[in-house]
Amino acid sequence: MKIIVACTENRVIGCKGKIPWYCPEDMKLFRKLTKWHYVLMGRKTWDSLPIRPLKNRYSIVLSSNVIEYPKNKDTTFIKNLDEVKAIWNYILCIGGGAVYKEVLDKGLVDEIWMSVMKKEYDGDVWFPELSSKWHVTERGSYDEFEFRRLKCS
After folding, report:
1. Contact 130/10 with Cβ under 8 angstroms?
2. If DSSP codes are grouped into helix, strand and coil, which group holds residue 92?
């Protein structure tokens, strides 16, 4: 499984249920990297999306309560990660904080695609702190953020 995340240098990813910045360049990169993929997210991330499901992606939503959501051909609601074990290698985890922590703690992640904003923002949700086993293998600079590809050694 891979993670795709946008955060600040101090790991802020959210504030009051929203992304604390507006960065069209990062949104364009996110669409490019996730198009035609399975994307895993938590219920709070799902609820925060302005348009559901995400166009040209198959959404997998991790939620303790899957009954309340309508069925949709482009979306599956699951109660635990074991329900998608067969396709882990094809999934991009897009958040939020609790889902990132769960997949990292379970050792399911082999690569992280991280957009790090050049400005700092206040927030109330953070990307988990990474162990020293993670290292940057690629960097790319954009106007408002730096893209980093990380792998675990």
Report:
1. no
2. strand
CA dihedral of 66, 59, 76, 70, whole degrees rounded to 10? 60
148 CB-side CA count, 13 A: 18
Name the amino acid, one letter, at 15.
Answer: C
Note whether 48 and 64 are within 8 A (CB). no
Percent of the chain with pLDDT over 90: 88
Q: Given a cut of 70, is residue 88 above it in pLDDT?
A: yes
What structural domains and CATH numbers belong to the chain? 2-147 (3.40.430.10)
| Three-state secondary-structure class, residue 105 | helix
Give the integer Cα–Cα distance in Å for 73 and 24.
Answer: 28
Report the C-alpha gap between 150 and 153 in whole angstroms: 10
**The overall pTM is greater than 0.85:** yes
